[in-house]
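Re: Re: token formats

Sure, here are both.
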Amino acid sequence: MDKPLIFISHKTTDSKIATVIANFIRDRTQNAVDVFLSSNWKFEGPRFGPGLNKELMTKLWKSNVLIFVYTSADQDWSYCLWECGVASDSGSPDTRMIVFQCGNDVPTPFVSDLRVDVRNPEHIRRFTKQLLKDPLPSRTEALAPDIATETLETAALELFGNLEKVLPDIHDPVVEWPAWPFLRVELPQTEVKKLEKLEIANRTERMKLSQEIVTQHAIVVKSDARVAQLFGLANLKDKLEFRELLQLWKEKFPTVDPTWFDSCCEQIRVGARMGFPVIHRTPMKAVGVDSEYTPVLSRVRRIPFGGSVHFDLYFYNLSDPQAVLAKSRMISIEKLFYKNMDESPPDSIKLKELVGELGQSGLNRVPILNGKKHPLYIVHRSMIDKFVAENVWGKSGKNPEDFTLADLLAEPEMKEMFENTFVAISQQCSLAEAKSAMLARPGCSDVFVTENGKRDEAVIGWLTNVDIAHNG
């Protein structure tokens, strides 16, 4: 007669728990049973090739015991439940179902059945005794009918201890929340069909009609507290009309155009047609804080039996300097006015001509790079003027018309200042990080963007303190 077969049904993410159970069964029965465990090559599992479900069905059909390893309700258990259904089919040989409950949740189909609470030592003792001393379904003899009580106790404690090492922490429950302020707008399907059929070519007229539909029929059916805060409220009342939310906002900002609401309506129209909405730069001023939030339609869900459609809107703070890459606001190297010391040596660059170039460019400073475009200096016009004024006829013996960049850099204090009044940041840095880096260096007023934020890398772009203050 073939060995009894124990099938362990589990999710791949719970393979460590399943392996502990499989090892226990194999060792304590001294290989008197076959254990089917798909996630561990040491045990019997499906073979490579076609017909996987057919092979699984054969094993499930023949299984004497099916152990269902269940952890938490937030997982997808459809495949495991399918395995349980095949094993318990009324036409198949008798299969004993054992649910290993590994957390607080209970699988719905087995709520009224006896389960093994793997965190309860007494439950583990009962399972161990039943496995070894009671005959398995379709069998007349137990696997170890004469096993001593002390040995059973040792085996149960071993299983309990090994499971404890791999079980998830039930004191750290599944928690979910929106990362940005969120609300869900509901429209009747009849009105959504009207939005679907809007084929008006004139954009202004089309937006007007879609806004009328949304304004008259949209209801807020779900939201988080942070959305309410954007509108200066503690929370939103149930079934709040979307237009009421607009009116509340208008009362706070009577002189500001509600372009954010127009954008919501247009995005809902496009979403109703299963299209990709355009995210317009139409931020909404938040109440009580100096921040702006841009509404973005992220999800549409049709509820056929409810006769409605849900539209999920998130409000993103895209104006936050933390969210803006410095790279997006820099002057790129292609548009940057700078001097390349390899192409134009310092003694060939006359200060008078350099001042003229700065004036024509509308700048008051110039980056000095080497041949590899690594940043070397930032030379300010004010320092050029100061140098020329301090080195007039009679002091340097040189005509100020002939002063060069080499003369300027020959002054130790000037050179040191030009070398230390800028910083380099990575191209992944935000405007806020650029500002922090600049403020951390005394006297710094310029930021170079390089690939990894190192001075011995090619400059990608340039930001001044004025750029950062304006954008951040």
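Second one below.
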Amino acid sequence: MQAYSDPKREDEPSALPDVEVFEGTDYCAGCDDGDQEHLKHDKWYWWSCFPGCLPDGDPRGPFETEAEALADAREGMED
């Protein structure tokens, strides 16, 4: 999902979304019993990224929900 780090910019005609929120798979650290199914946990991440461009840095997260990831990306921008 593409989003704006500053939601006030969504209506600006020249503004582009600058955050991508996505779901990824996280594995339990320290689990080593061979049962990979219980090791997978879907988590949410975000990174700074303009459409069609490579991300600007590593993913941030994990977060339990898409809303939590987006809120973290927007932290300090809604003031």
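The radius of gyration is 15 Å. Residues 18 and 50 are 5 Å apart (CA to CA).
- S.
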